[in-house]
Specification:
Ribonucleotide Reductase, subunit A, mainly alpha, 377 residues, 2 domains, elongated
């Protein structure tokens, strides 16, 4: 039997434990051995009664007694839940993040609860029958944006999915929330693809993808979170605001409102994680600026290169292709970019990085200047 188990790809020590367990079960069932109930005396805290709050029995409400002890470093390399009693010999799972400061956010449990309470279904919650035929240039512009949003959602899902297996189970609140963020990304891909293909249009042109690679190639989770959740999602939130502003139907307006709700949670996690990180890793503050220097430079370059996205926004904001409409679109896009930059820096300040304004990439810094001042300069 041992040989058979090993031939199936199981290590010898795993096969031996499995066979021994099967033999004990056979002996117990046949009456040859007295059952062993030692597990009933496991030295974990007993008699726990977590209390329901106004929002029900939440994940945060379970953090009572020793079950609420969240260590700064998680000492176990297995999938053991926090508060359980470890046993020797369990194979390591290959996690690489064991330090609380590298992933923690104080709002993670609350964000998880909000995410599951506010989940929505594109198939039935969006009033697709309110879509109406649009002028060709408007439909093409909206479909180009939807193509971009679908692409961003695929990236976000892949990035979070890449890092979740690296995070140890001592910080399950973060893993729970990020699992909902991954599902949100899938839903955003779904809803924007559906919008592109449900009103007589189709998909548009792929984006250059430079910034996508910058996020995916980040070397640690904090760098990833800063680039994805704060920088990228602040920009994405601004685009969703544009989408709601130019919406031509109840369906489009609701798509963007619900998507903003989801993205707001991701931004909130990113801000709180960076805040926690900076308070406990004071010496790594310059490192965070290095992350942002790189990410902002690549984002600024891609913004210049992504002509289809920029022109689609101009068409939608101006309402068409006439000279006057294009001028209006350019002016409104400049307003939204300045609004996005203000919100981005406000979030970094809330995370404990108010000096970022002085380090901002030059291509982005120009959006801090009001139009009249910029022309005078």
């Amino acid at each position: 039997m041992l040989v058979t188990q090993m031939e199936s790809g199981i290590r010898a020590d795993q096969a031996e434990r499995f066979i021994a367990q099967q033999e004990r079960m056979r002996q117990v069932s046949s009456g040859e051995e007295t059952p062993y109930f030692g597990w009933m005396h496991v030295p974990t805290e007993w008699g726990i009664r977590a209390r329901r709050g106004k929002k029900g029995l939440t994940v945060g409400a379970l953090n009572v007694g020793t079950y609420g002890d969240i260590p700064d470093e998680w000492p176990y390399q297995t999938e053991m839940p926090r508060g359980a009693h470890p046993i020797p010999g369990v194979p390591a799972m290959g996690y690489s993040i064991y330090e609380k400061a590298e992933l923690w956010a104080d709002n993670a449990a609350d964000l998880y609860e909000e995410a599951i309470q506010r989940r929505w279904r594109p198939a039935t919650d969006i009033p697709w029958d309110t879509l109406q035929p649009l002028p060709d240039e408007i439909e093409r512009a909206m479909c180009q944006l939807c193509t971009y949003f679908s692409e961003k959602a695929l990236l976000a899902g892949d990035v979070v999915g890449k890092w979740l297996p690296e995070m140890s189970y001592g910080y399950h609140e973060v893993k729970l929330y990020l699992s909902t963020a991954e599902f949100d990304a899938a839903r955003h891909f779904e809803v924007f693809r559906k919008r592109a293909l449900s009103n007589g249009g189709g998909l548009g042109m792929q984006s250059p993808g430079y910034f996508h690679r910058a996020i995916f190639d980040a070397r640690n989770w904090t760098e990833t979170s800063v680039a994805l959740h704060i920088l990228s999602n602040s920009f994405l939130m601004g685009l969703y605001q544009v989408g709601e502003y130019v919406a031509q139907s109840e369906a489009e307006a609701l798509i963007f409102r619900l998507s903003m709700q989801d993205i707001a949670r991701q931004i909130a996690y990113g801000v709180q994680h960076l805040k926690y990180f900076l308070l406990r890793k004071i010496d790594r503050r310059p490192e965070v600026h290095t992350y942002l220097n790189k990410a902002e430079a690549i984002m600024a370059y891609e913004d210049e290169q992504d002509t289809p996205r920029r022109e689609a926004l101009i068409i939608l904001l101006g309402g068409g292709l006439s000279k006057e409409q294009v001028q209006e679109g350019v002016s409104k896009l400049d307003y939204f970019k300045r609004r996005w930059m203000r919100d981005y820096l406000t979030r970094l300040a809330a995370a404990g990085l108010p000096e970022r304004r002085e380090h901002l990439h030059p291509a982005l810094k120009r959006y801090l200047v009001e139009p009249a001042v910029a022309q005078a300069v």
